[in-house]
Structure formats: C-alpha cells, structure tokens
Fold each of these.
Amino acid sequence: MATRPKYSQAPVRDILVLLSHAEGGTADFSALINALRGMFTPNETDLGPPSYKNNEAAWIDYLIDCRTSFVRAGWVTGSKSLWTITPRGRDALLVYSTPEQLRTAADQSRRVARPVDAEPIDSNMATAPISSAVVGSLGEGIQEAATDERYDSAHVEALRKLVRAMEEFIEETSLSPLADYPLREAIFFWWRRREFKRSGRLYAGKYPMTALWSPAAAERAATSKRCGGIVIEHVIPNNVTRQRLRETLDDPVEFRRVLDSEIFFVITKEEDDLINSAGYMSTIPDSGNPLDRYRLAGLDPETFAPLQLP
C-alpha cells in the first residue's frame, strides 16, 4: 500500500467534528467539504493533483479514502455521499483529542477484515469449514482475512452466549460480581488479546505499541528491558463496556461494535493509582468525557503518543 501524504491541518478530524454538530449527525459529503474549505489552510501537498475524477485537490481524495477507515472503525455509516456519525464516532472525538491521535487510530482501523457496519455474518460461518476449492482461489492476504473473520465471528457468538448466561445467573442469584469475573476474562482472552496481536508490534509481547502511551510509560519502556510497572488502561472502564454489551445483546452488529470500541492507553502503575485515587477507577466523570478521568488525576492525555522504539 502506498504511503498516504500527511496534511498540515488534519481535516480528517475536522470532518467528524462537523458531523457531530450536524442535525441528526448526518451531512452531505459535498457540504462537509465546503465547510472544511474555511477551516484549514491547504499546503502544497494538499493542493496536489487528485486521484479520483471530478475532484479538485488531493486533500479531498484523502478524505474520501479515509471513509473506509471511518466505517471500519465504526465512526461513520451511510453512503459515500451522505455521512452519519455514530455514537462510537462521537466517543472517538472525546478520546482522540488531537488530530494526530485520531489520524493514527483511523489508519490502524484499516487492519479490520471488513467494515463493521456491513451486514452481520451468518453465525454458521463461525463453525462451517472453508472448502479447499475456495481456499485455493484466495490470495494469501484474503485467506488470512477470511480466517480472522471466521474466528472473530465465533468469538462474538460465544461472548453473546456468555453474556446471556451471566444475565440469567445474576437474575437467579443476584450475585453480579461473580458473573462479571468470567465475562471479563472471556473478553480479554477471546477478543482483546487477538486485537493486541493484530494491532502491530507488541512491547514485551503484551503491550500494543500502537496504543497511546503516557510519556512516563514510554520512558520506562525505553530505559528498561522489563515491563514491570506498566499497565494497559481501559479508556472506557470495564464495567461500562460490560453494561453496553448487555444492552446490545440482541443486536450482533451493535454488540460487535461495542467490542471493537475498546480503546486502550498504556500508563505506569503509579499513574493508574492516581486515577483510582481520584475516584475514577470504574466510572466516567459527570462531563461524560472519559479523558477527564486522566485530567482529574493530574495527567494530560494530549501528551500521550504511540510508542516509538528503535
């Protein structure tokens, strides 16, 4: 895949901001482009020749190309000409508070095998064998994507069954904590760990380097051969995610979107303790902005960045 150019004012984030303020979260793409013209100053690369017909500049092509990432990340739905921002897209604006953070997250989403707003896959796909004739006709990359999708579908179905079983257990016993533990473990081993492995390089075989790291955690990783004192922190607390899974139990597409919406920061154990001491271990502040969990603990999430090691 050719390297895509960087843009001076990162309209990739601005377009989601415009959508978030549009009535119903929906706007015509051409109207979004017209609004963006007054929001940033294109550089020479931005104004380069377009790749697609009927476009006037490269930056417009870039946004058209970004739609694939937006859809796969679950941030946008709708046709190519009429975009609609999703609740997950609004969450992304909260979590990725700088243009570069959001651009990095959008680029990472291209590893997803299929757009998450596509029609749900038949659950039989999870267990049905792939015929040798079909496998032989696929390219290596497509084979890998098909295998990943089959396993993902199997895990989604298994997690839905587990959530339903845990709900029945809670109803019968009123022992919610006992139900949360197996669900938390299953989510990690059946979903998050696979996502970590597919997200790119892992530090110490565990921590995704493509996640946003606090400066202190990045410094510790760069100066120590051991991974002690570093933790993976859920931007949206575990208990909030589990509640969203319960609420979307009967909709496999939305259920998967909740699983895919997991966003992680990597911070030090001391920073994690600060968040817990501030009272936000398992809650989001009244502002509704999950990043305020960090700000109220004295951390600045805008300084977080993917881990860069030699």
Note: DSSP finds 13 helices and eight strands in the chain.
Amino acid sequence: MTAADSMVEKFDGAVLLLPYKLRERARTLTRSDRARAEEIRLRVGRPMSVLLPEGELTLGGEAVTARDLELLVEIATGASVHSSGQWLKYGFIPCRGGCRVGICGSTYLSGNEVTGFGSYSSASVRIAREHKGIADGLLPELMCDGRLSSTLIIAPPGGGKTTLLRELVRLIASPSKSRPGLRVGLCDERGELAAMRGGVAGLDVGELTDVLDGCPKAQGALMLLRTMNPQVIAMDEITSPEDMEAISFVRNCGVALLATAHAGGPEDLLSRPLYRDIPDVFDGYITVENKNGKRAFSYKAGGRP
C-alpha cells in the first residue's frame, strides 16, 4: 500500500462515522482530496464540507440536520453516549484509528462544569494522519550525543503539530543502524497520538514508546516519570498552569521533553503569561508554517525562540 492509499483509507474510515446519507456525499470527493482532507465539518442548516490544507471545501447537497449530528454521536460512541460522558463534557469523542469527533451545541452545566449536551449544532470529524518521513531532516538537529534536546513545537490550531509530534516520537523510539532508540513516555490525553485500542496502538509511535492513554497530561507526565523510567516524555498541547508545573518538574529530573503549544509564532507564545517560563524548560523550538497549502518546519536552538 502506498502512502496515498493509506491516506485515502484513513479518510474512508472516518466517513464510516457519518450517517449513511452523508457518507455518499463525502465519497464524491476526488481521490486526491480524500488523501489530503484533514477534517469533515458538519453544521446544522448548511451543506457538509471538508477541510483541506488550503481551506474548507463545501460538498454541496442537502443541509445537515440536527438528527444527522445525533446519529453521528451515536455512531462515534457505539450507541453508548452515556459511557462516553467523560469525553463529551470536554467537547469531543475519541474514535477508532485516531479520529476525533469534536462537538458544539447547547450544554448542560453543573455549577461551572459542563456535564453534557442538550442538543448539537455542529461537529468536526478530525482525520488522523501519519506522514512518515516528514521529520527525517529535523531529527539530527534535535539530537546531541545520543540525547534528545527538549523541544517545543509551535503552530496555530490545525497547523500540523500533532502529526509532527507523532512522527518525531516514532523516530526517536525506533532503533536504527545509526543510533539506538530512546524510551519515550507518551501522554496521550485525547487518544489522538497513538489511537490505543485493547492495549495496542492503532498509529505507529515507535517500538520503545509506553503510552498513557486518556489521562490528563500533568498527572500523566508524573506517572510516567515515576513508573516507566523514560528518557523522553512527549505530550500534546501545553495549555494550563498544571501542565507547566509538570514539565518543569520533569526537566528538573533530567528527562527530555517533546511537546506542542498553540501560537501564531514564537513572539506570540512568549507574550502570554502562562508561557513565561518556557525558555527555562526547552532547549529549542520547531515552528510549523503553512506555505501554499504545504507545511514547512524550521528549528531553532536556544533558550528563547
């Protein structure tokens, strides 16, 4: 199977999460666009669309209904919405193969905490993509004497951070003729990085990776540190003071970090109070940019991006 075949297969797998009448519309997309599609978007009262690297493409046809979204959630949860409540209160449902269904609508609250949805207004089916080889040129820049330099990946939402993080984890944790692999502890809070099912990773994260799935990142990083003797701890999306406290603790214990953060660029990142200590934690930064529908990566070593 070629890389393009694999990408089309991932899209076709995500389509199976849709109600039947929407599946047929999604399959009208050209093979090339099926291989490039990143998300399938559904909004009540509007035709379904797909997100391509250059932007959204409307597929036309009938408008999405509220019942379509109810069916989507039923399919994504295996007709067990109640058992998926732990995820729905955060607005998403992790699915087989690394796909994730994001939900918007009217929420139920208990105090200040979301407990569920009363109705749905829109949804996004994010398609997990493996782009093997995209980090081959980056990896030598991140390694020094067999050790990984702690590295933060910076990009706006939807910029490809998760895909790049997964590929770097795979490379770092895969022994080769030129170097031994490193033990990686992977905090996969939302199930997007490894797509674990029954203890088996549905996406390739390397031979020497230990995955902690569905656990909050701050807690998971400390659990991995105490139990799995990692040489590297990897996680997606540093977003809270608890995350910052945990990664600072990890670095002080001599373990390298590989993580991502939402930002338009380095200056944008460091302008936020949450990230004021980032230069003390990471040795270098990878910036992800979208250039004419293609992603470009640049690495800069040093305490400040």
Note: The mean pLDDT is 89.
